Please model this.
Amino acid sequence: MGMSTGFGNTPALDDSVRVEGGVVRILDRRVFPEAVDWVTAHDAEEVAAAIAAMVTQSSGPLYAAYAGLEITAGQLTGLAPDAARERMRVAGHALETARPTNNHPREAVQRVLAAVDEAAQAPGATTAQLVEAAVDAARSGARLYRERSHRLATAAVELLPDGARLLTHCWMDSYLIELVRAAREVGKRFDWVATETRPYLQGARLTAHTLAEFGEHVTLITDSMGAAALAPGSAIGPIDALVTAADRVALDGSVVNKVGTLGLAIAASAFDVPFYALVQSPDPEAPTAADIVMEQRDPAEVLHTLGRRTASALVTDAWYPAFDVTPPRFVTRIATDRGVFVPERVSDYFAPAVAGASA
Amino acid sequence: MGMSTGFGNTPALDDSVRVEGGVVRILDRRVFPEAVDWVTAHDAEEVAAAIAAMVTQSSGPLYAAYAGLEITAGQLTGLAPDAARERMRVAGHALETARPTNNHPREAVQRVLAAVDEAAQAPGATTAQLVEAAVDAARSGARLYRERSHRLATAAVELLPDGARLLTHCWMDSYLIELVRAAREVGKRFDWVATETRPYLQGARLTAHTLAEFGEHVTLITDSMGAAALAPGSAIGPIDALVTAADRVALDGSVVNKVGTLGLAIAASAFDVPFYALVQSPDPEAPTAADIVMEQRDPAEVLHTLGRRTASALVTDAWYPAFDVTPPRFVTRIATDRGVFVPERVSDYFAPAVAGASA
Model:
């Protein structure tokens, strides 16, 4: 079993991508916490393959992309600067195309390649200087991601009363971890209801485990029980808010997140429970959800549970959309690292004077 | 594996409770179709225990209750008529209290005990005459249940166009089997999307399997994907109707069915997809859903999948409401063995002139 119970304020999943000895080690979330296995990736392409295979997900691919770029930089010794830059671009391409819907790996690649390009502008720039720029950008990018997660969590906590019972879906990763920390900073505590989140059971394995590590109280439900939990008179209610991450938010306020979010948001709306979606920033290049590529994953996952066939052997067809789109009419507020917005005004995130604005 | 693929027009689950040699054999739906195991019950109390343990569910407890009463009748030899009647009452009590929410076992018990009581009114009635009355009532009751299921299915088919794509949840049992048969009688064919229905996975194992046995096309989804399937532009849509059974329907049109029905019904309503609930009859003794006992089952089931622990070992709290209540505003029509009703008028089922009426 090798159970990791974490300790204090640092759950195991808060440190699940590491650069060690020139390789990337990624905690395998497909089996955690039943097993604590680390997948080793020796280059950016192996990191990309791990992302595609769901070794890590949610915030994980962001950290993995930065780590993949950092070890790629460490492998540039002996290359001329132009060849070094080309290798970084190839590595970046592999990392940013591993999965299509979540934008964070692309942002990581853009950040590091921009730093490399800037360093290359200096007269007589050496490969060693490019390496240093890449490593700095990768490490500071990962730090910045955590800081922005903490800022959006702080904004979200302002929406939530002390003692609120929160329904969450899938695994918010750094957003969840920072939400607990931000709440404690202001003396608030929440009670949690987590969906198990088939087919990968991120809720049952990652979210519920991490909350338990923190000492938070969490009640697990199947994905079918969300509406019953939200309904008036529910035995585990009242639920004060539905709170999820968003993999992407379009400028029209559409929320793209793990499949199942839509159904919970509609039920919350029907029962007048607010739905708060957490994202560092809306996507400036996605005017609507139609501008976001929606990943379809292998339907075989729906026929299996943790590797075991759980559907009748006669069943051959299944459907596995990794994400769904929640239209803005079912979203109450979007909490970002620049404060809280009503969904229809989330593009104000990019208005010059808006930093810190609250809708 | 012992896979049963059924044959022709008779899927395996259409004959899953049998009286053989004075015992009841019940197909174990907890493991079907991966294994085809039959649980043997030697008296009514063992049948009741099998119902409580979910060896069979949906229509199964109705058939099991009749079978339990039939073998109880066969065990009355040597008892005086009064003692025989008392034994039937005790057996009936065990069967009708095995699970609280679905009323069918209670109806079976009332039917058989009424037949026994009537036979006992005859001057000089013998135990043998009581036995004959009980066996007749049990066997004809099971036949009548199938006939009524076929009538409600015929009414439901009239609501559904040929080629309709139907989303269904959990396992409608005799209603599903008769729905396929009734559609074929009028030359209609449907395309099916089935939810897997955690925690017992009745959709993945029973519904999808039975539809495949029939040669129907079925696509399996997890419980979290219903809203995404119902949404405009869904890759497996458009869904023409949500169709489920109802364990109970109150006189105000509230639909009590497997947990998860509520969330699907709300999503269907939000996307203007009709929701048709199938039930033989509303419950004349339940003016509202508040008059229906809602069963809470062992939360440990939520932490496990088919016997394997699938939640983090740190998680101790879970919630398993077996049913939820869909308010009438989210229900489009209720199909009964006396025709179709709008939910707000379902009590017209009991109006003297209404048989066959359609709303």
